[in-house]
Amino acid sequence: MKKIILIFLFLSFSITAYSWEKVPVQDYVDKKTKSPWNFFENFEDQKKGKLKLRKLSINDKGVGLKPFLIKEENDGNKFLEVTVKHRWNTDKTKNKKSQTERAEFQTKQKRTLKKTVWIGFNMRLPENFMHLKDRVLFFQYKNQFDPMQKSPLLGLRFYDYGKRLSIGGNTGGIAAKSWNNKENKIHDVKINYSKIDKDNKWVMNNFKTRNSEYKSTLVCSIQKVKTAKIPDYCKDEMMDYNKINPNFSICYDVYTPLWCYGDDGKLISKSKMQELLIDKSTILKGAKNFKSTNLGEWSTYKIGIRNSKKEDGFVKVYKDDKLIFDYKGVTFNWKGKYTGTYIRIGVYRDSGIRTDEKFPDQSIHFDNLTVVSDKKTLDKYLN
Length: 383
Prior knowledge:
single chain; mainly beta; Jelly Rolls; 2 domains; eleven-stranded antiparallel β-sheet; ten-stranded antiparallel β-sheet; 4 helices
């Protein structure tokens, strides 16, 4: 954003918002656990056009800096536009079913075990943004191993034409071993939100903690659903969860929860449905619902992570200062050769190559990337 000087007496330091500013670690922060990165980048002194990397790098698989453009709004604010196109930065694999495309910029790889890192940025989906049925990931906090075949500790992902927001990832496992159900049950931690357009809100759909299966928060008994009068527009989108839990099912319209049925075959009221959204887990909590951001509008993400082999680890995600993901516990239980951690931001998606399609170009806007050692400092830069 534009250059401004903000003075906070209670923090006993002033913030001068220049491009790529090294942020001082405050005296109250334990130096043993401080973030290995402490900087602020608002792109203001960059020239319009291609990104000048400085201390950032790109996850390049052949396309170079083409996906990264510095743009300027009418008020003079500069921001970074990141674009992915068909076959850009595809994986070097012959397996058609696993092909991906990406355009990501990242921090230098650092070791973060026993470290606390707070990350923040502004993000905007342009008005002409087109969601896909498949995965579109825009943030990763990835513990890297050599080799690495697992998901990041934290990923922020859209699915199902933008109707589902998935937050979370892998807290451990055998890094060199590909994804599998056994390890996923032990190490995966995640919350899935579904978008309800008429309320312009995200509501929690289901969640998963370590050593557990997914637990639904929008579930209904299907014992007598077959005798109920199901709306025609709902029948085609009925998702049967029998393989997961024979007692539950959800009725969707393009993966958006619409109706739930009780044992008597009658519709459950909206107020009763809201009661089902409450996550009673003691180690993974999230908002019952939070506001959806319209295309063309900026939103702010703040993320706190502590990598730990013990129960003092945590992952927190705030969207526009609303806590939407709150995990406490083991975050680093890996077997393998740990090489460091990346913070990656951009667009990483499943490729249309998988289904012989050509997906449309997708661009996402980013600004005010901030990585520091404590939330108080992060708040001052992003507020």
